[in-house]
Write a structure and sequence with these properties.
Elements: E1 4-7, E2 10-13, E3 18-24, E4 33-39, E5 46-51, E6 58-60, E7 68-73, E8 78-83, E9 92-99, E10 107-108, E11 112-117
Parallel strand pairs: 2-11
Antiparallel strand pairs: 1-3, 3-8, 4-5, 4-9, 5-6, 7-8, 9-10, 9-11
């Protein structure tokens, strides 16, 4: 199972930006669809964005379209999530995930906290 380590979270003011990174342990990183989920306090974990193995196809949940961008660098075994124009409602723990398909994810990182102040 691929091991994932997220970084880049923190406290930012509304309107600010953050870049989350997720480093994967396996050299077969390019064999995995990668994704970002988030879980806000008192809410269920939700899918934020996914990117296919080659990086040529992405998915975003409606609430982040135009604000967040997912990308990957297969040479560095890393997936990124650029968060722009942040709002307090974006506050959550953001989790990196991997799956052999983009419909089923079974590897998870420990999460990184994103807090947006108003």
């Amino acid at each position: 199972q691929v091991q994932l380590v997220e970084s880049g979270g923190g406290l930012v003011q509304a309107g600010g930006s953050l870049r989350l990174s997720c480093a994967a342990s396996r050299r077969t990183f390019s064999s995995y669809c990668m994704g970002w989920f988030r879980q806000a306090p008192g809410k269920e974990r939700e899918r934020v964005a996914t990117i296919n193995k080659s990086g040529t196809s992405t998915y975003y949940t409606d609430s982040v379209k135009g604000r967040f961008t997912i990308s990957r660098d297969n040479a560095k075994n890393t997936v990124y999530l650029q968060l722009n124009s942040l709002k307090p409602e974006h506050t959550a723990v953001y989790y990196c995930t991997a799956g052999l398909t983009c419909t089923r994810f079974d590897g998870w990182g420990q999460g990184t906290q994103v807090t947006v102040s108003s």
